[in-house]
Amino acid sequence: MTNYARLKDHNSALVRDDLSRHNEVWRGLPEIVNFNHTDICDLRCIMCFESVNPGRARISVPRIREILRQVLPTARKLKLTTAGEPLLLDFDEIVELAREYQVLLAMITNGTHLSVDRYLKMKDVLHHLTISIDSHDKDIFTKIRGKGAFDKIMRNLAELRKVAEFHRFSFHIQMVLMRSNLETLPAFVAWAKELGVNAVNVTRLHFPFDGLQEKEDIFGDFPAEVRDKHIHDAVDVAKRLGVNLGLADLGYPTVIAAPSPPVLPERPPTYVCGWVAQEIYIDPQEQVYPCCIGDRELVMGDLKTHSFMDVWNGPKYRKLRRSMFEQKLKGYCANCKLYAPIPDDAAFDLRQIYKKQRQGSLLGRMVGALRKS
Asked: What are the Cα distances from residue 138, in Å, to 40, 113, 181, 220, 242?
């Protein structure tokens, strides 16, 4: 019988040795696997790419097994993230693989399929659960996320509260802050406390589709004093009730008002990018990225045509590691708020500028090609 605990300890030591030696070819494998087995979602949230380009991709169950068996034996955590709704398809198969390889499970879900039965099936491996919900007010929720889901999600949360052992895992609520829900943020924090969460994580509007930025963004032309008032009121509620409130993505100090569960696995040294050093991101097309940005320039390889090890120590990963160690990261990486030593709002603005430059250059190449033809 394989001793996975010993295998994972040995791998973690290799990861840190590769970092200390500034190796380009790594013996250590990723400790955290971000796995997006589908981009299909049952909601059409106004701030999400699903609202303008609904997902259709799905990794087959045999391929799920084949891919995860390459990376889970040495990994410590499997994260199911937000390319689509992870509970919608083949979730039980993934839980079984996490259990087989003794991997902790973390996930972000919209809550529509978070039944008690689903919770009971995964509770022995569950380490971190985040529910993305945006508002506890039905009218606001419906405006942002569409009709038909609110009542089902609230029933699921009510039932979950009766049976969930919240001390066994980290339980977070995540919301995108915009003009529609800004005023209710303090009440949202109080509602989350009643639900039993460890933290509320508030993020900025990162996908400003046509017209949405003007309608919903709380930065730019929006009055800063109005934004500050509601956020500061929410901070007061969080401190009074003992709720951790994550505001870093907005450029405000995070509130630590209660003990936080330990971060697992242990974070790498601060002089390197935590994503590059410790994680991988696999999308529903089986492409490997170093992080969740998902821009085409960051594709490290394709698991349809290469083994994971060929990608992991392939030329693109080696170049990325060399750039990281030399402090010469470019493009999205250079402007990333998780890596660059610049304020969050400035990092966000730089990423938007860079994205527009990339889109503009792509459009220019397309137009030039059409003219030549």
From this structure: 24, 18, 11, 28, 25
Rounded to an integer, what distance in angstroms lies between the CA atom of residue 296 and that of residue 351?
14
Query: Which among 40, 185, 34 is positioned nearest to 108, based on CA atoms?
Result: 34
The rounded distance, in Å, linking the Cα atoms of 5 and 266 is 15
pLDDT category of residue 270 using cuts at 50, 70 and 90: low
| Dist. CA 193–CA 173, nearest whole Å | 10
Beta bridge partners of 35: 282
Query: How many alpha carbons fall within 13 Å on the CB side of residue 373?
Result: 6
pLDDT in tens, 149-185: 999 999 999 999 999 988 889 999 999 999 999 999 9
Instruction: Yes or no: say if 44 and 54 are a contact pair by the CB < 8 Å rule.
Output: yes
Structure tokens at 310: 């060929």
Which comes out higher in pLDDT, residue 295 or 144?
A: 144
How many angstroms separate the Cα of 57 from the Cα of each of 50, 85, 89, 187?
Answer: 12, 12, 11, 37
Q: Which three-class secondary structure state does DSSP give residue 258?
A: coil
Structure tokens at 113: 């399929």
Q: What pTM, to 2 d.p., does this model score? A: 0.88
Contact 62, 84 (CB under 8 A): no
Distance CA(204)–CA(217), nearest Å, equals: 8
Structure tokens at 360: 């503009």
Say how far apart CA 273 and CA 333 lie, in whole Å. Answer: 9
- Judged against a pLDDT cut of 90, whether residue 354 lies above it is answered with no
Average pLDDT, the chain: 88
pLDDT in tens, 48-97: 888 888 889 999 999 999 999 999 999 999 999 767 999 999 999 999 99
Given a contact cutoff of 8 angstroms between Cβ atoms, the answer to whether 344 and 248 are in contact is yes
Q: What is the pLDDT of residue 360?
A: 45
The CA–CA distances, whole Å, from 254 to 175, 194, 226, 239, 244 equal 15, 20, 19, 11, 8
Give the three-class secondary structure for 103: coil
**67 to each of 46, 131, 355, how far by Cα in Å?**
32, 26, 31
